[in-house]
Amino acid sequence: MQRLARAVATAGGVGYLPVAPGTAGSLLALPVLPWLAASHAQAPLATIAGVLVFIAVAVWAADRAQRAFGTHDDGRVVVDEVAGMLVTGLFLPATWLAAALGFFAFRLFDVWKPPPVGWLDRHVAGGVGVVADDLVAGVYAGALVRVLVELA
Fold it and tell me: pLDDT band at residue 72, thresholds of 50, 70 and 90?
């Protein structure tokens, strides 16, 4: 089980990249965003349920992996970035432009950590703490891009 948790937490090993593993983890989800947005428009409850299942798996894997790595929110754990990007995708229209904007907005909020993102990162323990800040960053990114798209 530990090997599976590490594989999921590192997104199949992407988290072991020596440079910008969080950005690489976020990029993994980018090609899925237009499909996710289209799916959300057609079957919102099923799409949300699928994202929630992914989040649950991400929390489990992040919790197991961070205990194995011996640090909180270890840089090798990137499944949280994938989960945050999926949350971003729930807000977007099904276009590649919106997906690209969502990626950049997510990275901005994930690095900047405006409240409560930074607080969650520092104060919530376990896998929930590893994933929660990225979920809020995903909501912020998705909402921002949705507003920009609607205003354009």
Answer: confident
Residue 70 token pair: 């011996």
Please check whether residue 15 lies inside any domain of the structure. no
Burial track 44-78 (b if 16+ CB lie within 10 A, e otherwise): eeebeeebeebbebbbbbbbbbbeebeebbbebbb
Q: Are 129 and 79 contacting, i.e. CB atoms less than 8 angstroms apart?
A: no
Alpha carbon 108 to its chain's center:
13
Number of separate domains in the chain: 1
Q: Which two tokens stand for residue 49?
A: 């349920």
- Residues 124, 142: Cα–Cα separation, whole Å: 23
DSSP state of 57: H
Burial code (b: 16+ CB inside 10 Å, e: under 16) for 22-43 equals bbbbbbbbbeebbebbbbbeee
Note down the domain range covering 139: 2-10+20-151
Both tokens of 64, joined, read 């197991």
Mean pLDDT of the residues in the chain: 96
Residue 77, phi then psi, degrees to nearest 5 = -80, 110
pLDDT tens digits, residue range 50-62? 999 999 999 999 9
